[in-house]
């Protein structure tokens, strides 16, 4: 009777239809066998896993499969009352192709005018904190051998000021790659002037250290005027470059955001500007609050993207594009292009939702399909880690990606 029962339970296990969930090449996979209906059956091993790149341990298949294929696996199992007799149950595992492999990665022409690398990254100091930036060409551009149109620039300025600028060149503009580079370099260079920074600093102090509302009001007006002059300078550099090369300035269309900052006795002053759909966000020290520091050209502006190369942005409404913020401290200051914003936040409202930012930083911490982790503590290779992370897969989102994080 005991042998009959053992035989029957083993045969029932052989006949049960096990469907292993499909895996995807180069993405972490995990499948656990549920044996509640077979309390006397134990799985000893799963054979033929070596060719997949997966391993079996504690009733679980896991790992990152190498390539797409249909694999025949042998489940080696036994009955607890007949441990010496091992049986085989055959199952199939389908590993789907990595969608990334379907996209070509054609290098941009190194001999072309205004050449720029397909990707770049940076790490360094920013105020009394650190900064890392990564900029990567999107798959849509890589597939056709086109250039990365995003760009960024980080600069330490006189008087312990720092600036980080990010730009996103318009895909429809033939020289957008140079437009984005010129924009960030021009605005950073403008604020490299000691005279201009002295004026910015004096008015920043008056704004936050003076008790006179009249002085504060005048100081705010002066700060915005100085920021305006910096933005206008960037426009003029783009306009002049277009003229020198017999381009239309439209050929250089690009968005622009920047954060100019300094730590004072009374707190961190962060002066910001934005045109286009790239956000600047400030997260509180305890991660309880997030602020969007610039006006974004989405929503009512969704039908007509705005660029720094458009003269019409320099009207009375431009004042709403500037931000003046003072905080005692912060955990992160983040600037990004829509190549990051669109897949990770999707809507402008999510940029001011702290729960969305918790999910975002959880993603950066490695909770993603690629297990790509950006380590803000052991940050020796953080710039390369961030560059690797920006290669994430998001269906339908293949634009250039640039992300700057001050931490």
From TrEMBL:
What parts of the sequence cross the membrane? none
Enumerate the spans annotated as PPM-type phosphatase domain: 137-371
Task: Tell me the superkingdom of the source.
Answer: Bacteria
Listed name of the protein: Protein phosphatase 2C domain-containing protein
């Amino acid at each position: 009777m005991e042998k009959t029962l053992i035989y029957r339970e083993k045969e029932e296990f052989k006949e049960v239809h096990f469907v292993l969930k499909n895996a995807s090449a180069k993405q972490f996979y995990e499948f656990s066998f549920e044996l509640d209906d077979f309390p006397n059956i134990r799985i000893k091993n799963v054979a033929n896993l070596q060719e997949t790149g997966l391993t079996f341990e504690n009733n679980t298949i896991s790992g990152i499969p190498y390539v797409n294929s249909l694999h025949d696996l042998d489940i080696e199992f036994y009955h607890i009352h007949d441990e010496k007799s091992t049986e085989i149950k055959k199952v199939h595992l389908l590993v789907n192709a990595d969608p990334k492999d379907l996209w070509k990665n054609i290098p941009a022409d190194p001999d072309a005018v205004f050449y720029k690398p397909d990707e770049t990254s940076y790490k360094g100091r920013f105020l009394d904190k650190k900064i890392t930036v990564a900029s990567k060409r999107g798959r849509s551009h890589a597939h056709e051998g086109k250039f990365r149109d995003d760009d960024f620039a980080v600069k330490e300025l006189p008087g312990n000021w720092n600036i980080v600028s990010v730009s996103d060149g318009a895909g429809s503009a033939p020289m957008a790659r140079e437009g984005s580079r010129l924009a960030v370099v021009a605005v950073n260079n403008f604020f490299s002037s000691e005279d201009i920074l002295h004026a910015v600093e004096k008015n920043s102090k008056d704004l936050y250290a003076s008790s006179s509302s009249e002085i504060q009001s005048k100081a705010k007006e002066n700060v915005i005027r100085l920021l305006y002059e910096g933005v206008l300078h960037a426009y003029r550099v783009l306009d002049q470059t277009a003229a020198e090369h017999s381009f239309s300035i439209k050929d250089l269309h690009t968005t622009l955001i920047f954060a100019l900052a300094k730590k004072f006795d009374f707190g961190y002053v962060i002066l910001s500007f934005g045109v286009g759909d790239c956000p600047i966000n400030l997260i509180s020290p305890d991660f309880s609050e997030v602020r969007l520091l610039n006006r974004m050209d989405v929503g009512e502006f969704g039908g007509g993207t705005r660029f720094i190369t458009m003269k019409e942005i320099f009207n009375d409404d431009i004042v709403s594009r500037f931000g003046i913020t003072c905080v005692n401290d912060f955990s992160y200051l983040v600037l990004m292009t829509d190549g990051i914003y669109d897949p990770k936040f999707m809507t402008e409202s999510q940029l001011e939702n702290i729960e969305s930012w918790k999910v975002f930083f959880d993603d950066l911490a490695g909770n993603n399909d690629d297990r790509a982790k950006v380590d803000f503590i052991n940050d020796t290779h953080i710039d390369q880690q961030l560059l690797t992370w920006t290669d994430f897969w998001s269906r339908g989102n293949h634009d250039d990606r640039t992300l700057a994080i001050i931490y």
